[in-house]
Each structure stands twice: as C-alpha cells, then as structure tokens.
Design goal:
Elements lengths: L4 H31 L2 H27 L13 H30 L9 H29 L2 H30 L4 H28 L6 H12 L6 E10 L2 E10 L5 H18 L3 E9 L5
Helix pairs in contact: 1-2, 1-4, 2-3, 2-5, 3-5, 3-6, 4-5, 5-6, 7-8
Length: 295
C-alpha cells in the first residue's frame, strides 16, 4: 500500500523513535549496572515505556494511513487519536509512579551511595544527544503533518530530556559534591512536566474522538475564502471535526439557480481546491444550494 508524503514522514518519525528508544534502553541498562543510580533507573523505566509506546505509535501511524474502505468511509485516521490517548495514559501512570518513588527517596533517612559516576555521566550525555536529535526530527514532522501520535511520542522524549539532565546533575553532585538527593528533586520536576504534557495531548485526542470542532481559526479562515469567492452569493453551515491529523470540513454555498449545472460544479470544485490549498490537512465537502432571490 503506497503511503502519502505526510504518512511517510510520520512513519519515519515512528521508526526513528523506536530505534532511539531501543538504543537508550540498552545504554541505560548498562549504566544502571555500573552506577546503581536510582535516577538512571527512573530514566531507564521511562525509556522502556517509550520503546513500547513508540512501537505502538508506529503501528497506529501505518494503520491510520490506510485509505477509506466500505467499513471506514472517512478513512482510519482516528487510530492516531486512540494511540495518542493511550500514550497520554501511559505517560501519566509512569509520571505518578516516578514522582511517588522520588518522594519516598527524599523522605528516606539516608541516601544510598553511588559508584562509577563517570561512566554513568558519559552514557547519559550520549542519551541526551540522541534524544535532542530525535526531537528535532519529530518536531519537523509535527509541523509538516500535524500528527497527534508523533506529538504524543515527542512528549515522551521531551520528558526523557529532563530525566537525562537530572541524572547527569545527580551523578555530578554525587561524585564531586557528595549530594545524593538532587536526582529525586529532578525526578519530581520531570514527573510534573510529564503529567501536564500528557493532559494536553490526552485532551486533544479525546476532543477528536468526541467529534469536537476544529480550531475556530480554521472555520474563520474558510469563511474568509468563501466570502470573496467568485460566483458564491452566500454560505452557511460550516461544520468541522478532527480525526488524527485530518480535518473534515463541510460547507454550504449559495449559487445562482439559473446558471448551468457545470458552472455551479466548477465554482464549488474551485472553492474546494482553494480551501485544501490553505489547509492541506482538510477533507472538504461543498454542498451547493440555490441562493434565495430578493423578497
């Protein structure tokens, strides 16, 4: 099945995130054995979740790219919203667990000493560089496709960046300052960031699954195009909804009832093309009504 350019971009982001997640899990597993640092353990757990979720996201992207069929006349893009909602739930649970563990470590009477902090620092620096490169590619794909799955996946790795930096700071503080609790503080901060981001992504996915209207600015932009389009005497009932990275649009336009059918069709088709040119992610249906004459 050939993929559209947008689907290929989204799939490339899914493949990249899955590959990076697998590499990060391997690196952090080794670093945990070498240092015994709980901050690295938290980062490893988060990367393990990222690996599972990234693989699920890649499958959702490929499924969502399937063309419409008899059972799914509007396509399969809602799979992206389902995957994004699931990812948001995973991130929330992970953040709560990590935050709880960090609070327990802060309340513990004594901190466990770390070992071989230098090796851990090297691993976490490499992990940070890989994560930054992945985020740069994911953000480019998000700007080009608007994929909610890639946006949710990027959220995980943005959280990883906080975890990685926190682990580096904790290892540095342990080795040169003798401070053992910085990693717990950083873990709490990262958990709060993750929860806030998960709520944002989850709310967006939920709104799409519940057929909430698209951004009001899209409707306003479509109205501006229709208001000045040649041959259109009026318009009404602009309706929008989102599904994955797609925006479904319906608009009724009012035309001269005495003009030939072909002319009316050409006006509607040209307007549809103009709307899609302005909003490439849109799937547009133009209904043609006869304009009412003067009373």
């Amino acid at each position: 099945m050939p993929l559209s350019p947008e689907a290929r971009l989204a799939a490339s982001a899914g493949i990249a995130s899955s590959t990076v997640a697998a590499v990060l899990v391997a690196l952090k597993l080794w670093a945990l054995g070498a240092t015994g640092a709980l901050s690295i353990a938290a980062s490893l757990a988060d990367s393990g979740v990222d690996l599972m979720v990234s693989l699920a996201a890649l499958l959702a992207i490929l499924y969502a790219a399937r063309p419409p069929d008899e059972d799914h006349a509007f396509g399969h893009t809602s799979a992206e919203d389902l995957a994004a909602l699931g990812q948001a739930l995973f991130v929330t649970v992970t953040a709560v667990v990590i935050g709880w563990a960090a609070a327990l470590r802060l309340l513990a009477p004594a901190a466990t000493p770390l070992r071989d902090e230098g090796s851990g620092i090297v691993v976490m620096v490499v992990s940070t560089l890989l994560t930054v490169a992945l985020l740069a590619w994911q953000n480019r794909v998000i700007r080009r496709t608007g994929s909610k799955v890639v946006a949710a996946d990027a959220l995980h790795y943005a959280g990883d960046l906080v975890f990685n930096i926190g682990a580096i700071l904790s290892l540095v503080a342990s080795r040169w300052l003798g401070l053992m609790q910085i990693d717990s503080v950083m873990a709490l901060v990262a958990a709060l960031i993750l929860i806030a981001g998960a709520l944002r992504v989850g709310r967006s996915a939920w709104d799409a699954l519940m057929d909430r209207s698209a951004d009001p600015e899209i409707s306003a932009g479509i109205a501006r195009i229709a208001a000045t389009w040649p041959g259109v005497r009026g318009f009404h009932d602009i309706k929008t909804r989102t599904a994955g990275s797609r925006v479904f649009v319906q608009i009724h336009i009012e035309l001269d009832g005495n003009q030939p059918l072909r002319e009316a069709h050409d006006i509607g088709a040209a307007l549809r093309r103009a709307i899609i040119a302005a909003y490439p992610q849109a799937d547009v249906i133009v209904h043609k009504d006869v304009a009412r004459g003067p009373d």
